[in-house]
Amino acid sequence: EVVMTQSPATLSVSPGERASLSCRASQSVSNYLAWYQQKPGQAPRLLVYGASTRATGIPARFSGSGSGTEFTLTISSLQSEDFAVYYCQQYNNWPPAFGGGTKVEIK
Amino acid sequence: EGQLVQSGAEVKKPGESLKISCKASGYSFSRYWIGWVRQMPGKGLEWMGIIYPGDSDTKYSPAFQGQVTISADKSISTAYLQWSSLKASDTAMYYCGKFGGDEPIWFGEGGSWFDPWGQGTLVTVSA
């Protein structure tokens, strides 16, 4: 089974700053990688699929990159509504799997 | 894109059975895989399994195989997750999700991402 590892576990960032979140796969998942945002008390929301394609309605400040085993979600200028937990998920291999998440908190 | 609405919170005792639901609207229910994700208190997301409502083909993550049953009734556009004998360790929030994309395409070996998601059903198992 593919293991997805996200780092860091917690990222402290000031509003307006750039945030880079990492997701590493234990073996290649090609570009079959999605990113989700989850706020407290809410269901996850899709941000990116296919490693770099933004979902409908997602602001341009969110961008995904990478392929194979190394992926990055970049938030170019953090807004107050972006402080949340972010998860990656691979769907190239069986079974699909989520990473452990990165919490983006206010510095 | 569609919408998924899940059944309400449940409080059960160990050993009891339970079936929670996820009602779909706004898309062709039979054509898209729909799945379930567990989130234990304070923890991350765990991919459980999926069902294709068109023919009830079902696939489970090994960690959940034999622990739960996923089913669907395409006549009422509803997917289900059920337990025959609950344990305290089943206490969690459970989300349903539809496979994403404008067309029901299967990618790689894992299928697809989830979009949209239901609002979640909290299951509490306590004596």
Helix content of chain B: under 10%
**Oligomer kind:** heterodimer
Any idea what the shape of chain B is? globular
Query: Strand portion of chain A, in percent?
Result: over 45%
**SSE sequence of chain A, one letter per element:** EEEEEEEEEEE
Termini separation of chain A: 36 Å
β-strand number of chain B: 11
| Number of continuous helical runs of chain A | 0
The biggest chain-chain interface is: A-B, 28 and 28 residues
User: Describe the biggest sheet of chain B?
Assistant: 7 strands, mixed
Backbone structural class of chain A = mainly beta
CA-atom Rg of chain B in angstroms: 14 Å
Structural class of chain B: mainly beta
Largest sheet of chain A: 7 strands, mixed
**Overall shape of chain A:** globular
The proportion of residues forming helix of chain A, as a percent range, comes to under 10%
Point out poorly predicted stretches of chain B. none
Please describe what this structure looks like:
The complex is a heterodimer of chains A (107) and B (127). By secondary structure, chain A is mainly beta. In chain A, 0% of the residues lie in helices and 50% in strands. Chain A is built from no helices and 11 strands. In chain A, the strands form 2 sheets. In chain A, strands 2, 4, 5, 6, 9, 10 and 11 form a 7-stranded mixed beta sheet that branches. Chain A is globular and about 35 Å long. Chain B has 127 residues and is mainly beta. Chain B is built from no helices and 11 strands. In chain B, strands 2, 4, 5, 6, 9, 10 and 11 form a 7-stranded mixed beta sheet that branches. A 4-stranded antiparallel beta sheet of chain B has the order 1-3-8-7, with no helix packed on it. In chain B, a hairpin with a 4-residue loop joins strand 5 and strand 6. The mean pLDDT of chain B is 96. At the A-B interface, strand 4, strand 5, strand 9 and strand 10 of A face strand 5 and strand 10 of B.
